[in-house]
Design a protein that fits this description.
With about 700 residues, this protein is α+β, with helices and mostly antiparallel strands. The chain is elongated. It starts with about 25 loop residues before the first helix and ends with a strand.
């Protein structure tokens, strides 16, 4: 199957014959007759699965087809007498689904489960019978694809069906592969249903299954599903796109000529490569038309270059950029940095002397297989695992191919309180089409959707323990939890030591992942009094004033003048200082580096010489920046007291984004003890910076 140039079944005229790619399609009428004839004699493979066997052997020449024969006989016997709404025998549906997977290169176990995927739901066959005949693995996959009973869930049946399939997919990605192929065949034959039901099924396909196909890398299914949904939900845009493609078919196509030029360049360079012209599918043409306006001939397709080795990809790129004019902004290296759905390729665009711009994709043949079939191309991810014939079938199996986004889905779905919440959040999660990787301070990594913040990283790493998160360091710099993360950032999350700490309501404004949002909302719902206390912007600053003041120890060379230490820079011995005469005959003392010194001179203030007294004591104002937590003021005051320093006054400002500023005016017995005092204050848990005011 092709990830390009697919076409809705309901509109065979949508693409001219010259644009169609050869593809084996099931003749449902012929298969229906073959199915009605019953099983073949002796051990010969039934004619009805001849297409499946041929496609399967093309990818797996040594495959044992006896398992497929037995699965077909059970499926045909079980479904005998059942008919589809289109009038064909029902067995044609599992046969068509199995052929789709066989063309993608699925292994025998997947095809066996595909033939049986509707037997447990729609016939008298039980899971125990499937297990006894085909083993635990096939049984597990069939059970994962089987829908939940509507009688148990009513209107919640569809969300619960997808929840069940997601959980099963977490243990075996082949479950979702069968579901996607099943939906593709149903979409191909959707024309027999009422328009309103077509629209409902198409919307679910658009919102859930197409994003899942994208994330699993199954582009061949994803692109055809997109076109089928496009034709149903946007018929006017679909018809205009069809007209564009039909009009282009009657014009000269420049891409074959460009492809010939690329072949000649690579042949001269000694690089063995296969060069193809890949027509765009309908939705791709529609998107290009919307972004570029009027389309040119080279916009209706792309050039695909297939080579043997990774190094050859970069060799091809070098030749293309040397012999053609590259469009630098179009270059993307998905080989060095693969997409989160296994996709690898080099993307570039080159301009020809005729003025055409052609997009070029360069990949190895193995990359091409994975780009088309995604996880289906990986075969059975459990073949290297030890035999688990005697293992508990309910025990979770570890899938080495499980992507990070799937692990996140499995984590948060357990906390979704009801089917409606699960369904809403699932669609929102799948709408995130990019993923970033951030590094933890301990060397591990976290996979997060693009746009995630430190709040999301906290819940991804610590789960519900992240309720006590009080801040983060991103790339070594202290920052708020609202800070968005970028791909490659290193994040260190700071947790409060107080177990009673909880999230603030504003965290919901910064959370992007369902796991974080569900956890925060649940905590706030269970702690309504605490959630109200976190919004403290209206509170006045807390001030504490000491019992006695203490005088300044600076002396001005102006008899009888009152000397005041400036609060803006709080000079202390042995700082270099400057004094200025202000209203009332007082002298204000600043550090010479203070910005106010230049302002005083610009205003023409009289400069007065100032020196320090011989006494060692001094008064200083310090500001402590910290993350809010209970008992912080008491702990800071205790740390100050242990240094033998007297608190003249203290002010605590209202918390902003969980950060609190404490301002202390302190009387030190010796100015030399100031550095030690500031170190002691910084060591208080939750304090991240201490400086002079």
């Amino acid at each position: 199957m092709s990830a390009e140039a697919t076409n809705p079944e309901a509109h065979p005229e949508a693409r001219p014959e010259s644009r169609r790619r050869a593809r084996t399609r099931l003749d449902l009428r012929r298969l229906g007759r073959a199915a009605l004839l019953g099983p073949a004699s002796r051990d010969r493979l039934p004619d009805a699965i001849g297409h499946v066997a041929e496609a399967h052997r093309a990818h797996h020449p040594d495959a044992d087809l006896s398992l497929l024969r037995r699965a077909y006989l059970l499926a045909e016997t079980s479904h005998r007498g059942q008919m589809r709404k289109s009038g064909e025998p029902y067995i044609t549906h599992p046969l068509a689904v199995t052929l789709i997977l066989a063309e993608l290169g699925a292994e025998t176990t997947t095809l066996t489960a595909s033939l049986l995927h509707d037997t447990v739901e729609d016939t008298e066959v039980t899971l125990d019978q499937v297990r006894a005949e085909f083993g635990d693995e096939v049984c597990f996959i069939v059970d994962g694809v089987t829908k939940v009973e509507k009688i148990d869930y009513g209107a919640a049946a569809e969300p619960e069906t997808f929840r069940k399939m997601l959980v099963a997919t977490g243990n075996d990605v082949r479950v979702m592969s069968i579901k996607l192929a099943d939906r593709l065949h149903n979409m191909r034959t959707l024309g027999v249903m009422r328009p309103e039901k077509q629209a409902r099924i198409a919307k679910v396909t658009r919102d859930v299954l197409i994003p899942l196909a994208e994330r699993l890398g199954v582009q061949a299914l994803k692109t055809e599903l997109e076109d089928l949904v496009f034709a149903i939900l946007h018929p006017e845009e679909y018809e205009s796109t069809r007209a564009l493609i039909a009009a282009h078919a009657g014009e000269r196509d420049p891409l074959p000529g460009i492809a010939d030029a690329v072949r000649a360049v690579l042949r001269d360079a000694g690089i063995a490569a296969e060069v193809q012209v890949r027509p765009r599918h309908f939705v791709s043409v529609h998107r290009i038309a919307r972004s570029r306006g009027e389309l040119r001939g080279s916009d209706f397709g792309r050039i695909l270059v297939l080579v043997a080795e990774n190094a050859d990809c970069y060799g091809v790129l070098g030749e293309l950029h040397t012999c053609f004019t590259p469009v630098v902004s179009e270059f993307k290296d998905f080989i060095a940095v693969p997409k989160f759905n296994l996709y690898q390729s080099l993307h570039t665009a080159v301009a020809t002397p005729e003025g055409y711009v052609a997009e070029v994709i360069v990949r190895t043949r193995q990359m091409h297989r994975v780009a088309e079939a995604g996880v289906v191309a990986l075969g059975n991810p459990y073949t290297t695992a030890p035999s688990d014939a005697a293992a508990d079938p309910d025990e979770e199996r570890v899938d080495p191919t499980r992507p990070g986004w799937l692990s996140r889905l499995l984590d948060w779905q357990q906390s979704a309180p009801d089917p409606d919440t699960f369904w809403t959040v699932l669609r929102a999660e799948l709408a995130q089409d990019r993923e970033i990787t951030v590094f933890r301070a301990d060397g591990g990594t976290l996979g997060l959707p693009a746009g995630a913040s430190c709040v999301d990283a906290a819940y991804a790493q610590y789960g519900e323990a992240a309720h006590g998160c009080i801040g983060a360091r991103v790339n070594g710099r202290l920052t708020s939890l609202a800070t968005p993360l970028s791909d490659g950032d290193t994040v260190q999350l700071l947790l409060a030591q107080d177990a009673s700490s909880g999230p603030a309501a504003e965290w919901l404004d910064h959370a992007r992942t369902p796991a974080a949002r569900i956890a925060i909302a649940g905590w706030l719902e269970n702690h309504p009094d605490r959630s109200l206390s976190t919004t403290s912007a209206a509170r006045a600053p807390l001030s504490v004033v000491g019992a006695r003041g203490g005088g300044a120890n600076a002396v001005a060379d102006l008899p009888g003048a009152t000397v005041r230490l400036a609060g803006c820079c709080t000079p202390v011995p042995p700082d270099a200082v400057a004094g200025f005469l202000v209203r009332g005959g007082a002298v204000t003392v600043h550090r010479v580096q203070c910005a106010a010194v230049a302002q005083m001179r610009a205003l023409g203030r009289t400069c007065v010489a100032v020196h320090w007294r011989a006494t060692a004591d001094c008064r200083v104002t310090l500001r402590a920046e910290s993350f809010g937590r209970p008992h912080l003021l008491a702990d800071l005051t205790e740390a100050i007291a242990r240094e033998g320093v007297e608190v003249v006054s203290a002010t605590v400002e209202p918390p902003v984004e969980q950060r609190v500023r404490h301002t202390y005016t302190l009387q030190l017995p010796d100015a030399a003890g100031l550095p030690a005092l500031m170190r002691a204050m910084r060591e208080v848990p939750g304090v991240y910076d201490v400086g002079r005011a």
